[in-house]
Amino acid sequence: MKFFALTFASALAQDIPSLPPLPTDAPPSTSMTTTRGDKVTNEERCGSLSYHMAYPQPTGKELCPSYSCHSCCDDAKVSSEFNKFKTADGQLTKYSIFDFSGCDAAGNKVQNGGMSSTCTAYVQSNFCTSQCSPNIYAFNTKMPNRPQIPACQNFCQSFLQACQNDYICFNPDGLTEYLQDMYSNGQVTEGKDYLMTRCTGNYDCKKISESIIANEPDLGALPDGPLKKKLQEKVDAAEKVPNSARFCEKFTLGLFRESPDDNLCVDPRQETSITSYIKDYKEVAYNKAHPDAPVNFPVSDPCPTGLSTGAIIGIVIGCLVGVGLIAGLVYYFVAKGGDDKDGDYTAGQSGGSIVSGTQIPKTEETIQMGEDGDRV
């Protein structure tokens, strides 16, 4: 009996097949990896004005060299457009709604005035950024033809410093119209022929640092009445901001709005600052709000010129200052040489006599001017 049991067990063991080893690797995933789509197409990154190209591509270096590798502008066409506002001497006569042609560097009323070279360097850089940067699409708003960039305070301060001693035409008779658009209608309209900024009729030459675009509006020149009272109430209720913030926004008609956070802002002189803001903030914020449909915000790096736009602006301004110093030294030594000859003066000897419309494709994001309240 015992032998039979052992024999049966042995036979049973031979009939049972051996089991395969248990798997040690994780089972393959059945989900598919997907690549994020772009927020905009390449063609949607550029504007549609006559000098805009269909998509970012290489171009010339005359006006905007930092964008010559990836530009939304045809350099020859955009240079021609920008130069329409220059005098024969190369001075810029107008920016936005503000006219410089009726004032000289000393604040005298003339017919062939223009913007200083230091201010022009910033204005040209800003124009290139707003028109030709392939990355500006990320700052589009629903405002017609106008992106809005949260600029760093140090940029706005430097921008104001570069332009503060320039003179613009100011006609007090047009102040009411300008303030009504600013406070009652919500925005000043680019391209509108404001009486306040015309270099004709009863105009004065106003230094920018002392003007309405860098200071709180003074309504003293307005006639007393309900309109003046209403405007004064709006001015008093508006957010109080530094002069640099007011200048950055009013001079550019909202292209720049000074950011209260130095860690969350853009320096328009540095294209890498723009691309970093887009990838580190814009893209992250959008995807956080749309977790089921994340996207990629395409960006193009600036040309590897070795010098940033900010550095180029600094060099230009530095050279201008250097030329002024050299001219001063030459004048000093010439004058000193004349003083050394005073001993040879004889009776009767005569003494010597010693210068938007911007159109960007719209996106679904909206950043209206004054969304955080009007600024004055």
UniProtKB/TrEMBL annotation:
Keyword entries, A-Z: Membrane, Transmembrane, Transmembrane helix
Molecular function as annotated in GO: signaling receptor activity
InterPro entries with a match to the protein in the record: Folate_rcpt
Keyword Hydrolase: no
Bilayer-crossing regions: 311-334
Superkingdom of origin organism: Eukaryota
Annotated region (Disordered), positions in chain: 18-37
Cellular component per GO, a single term: external side of plasma membrane
Name of this chain's protein: Folate receptor-like domain-containing protein
Organism name: Oikopleura dioica (Tunicate)
Taxon lineage: Eukaryota, Metazoa, Chordata, Tunicata, Appendicularia
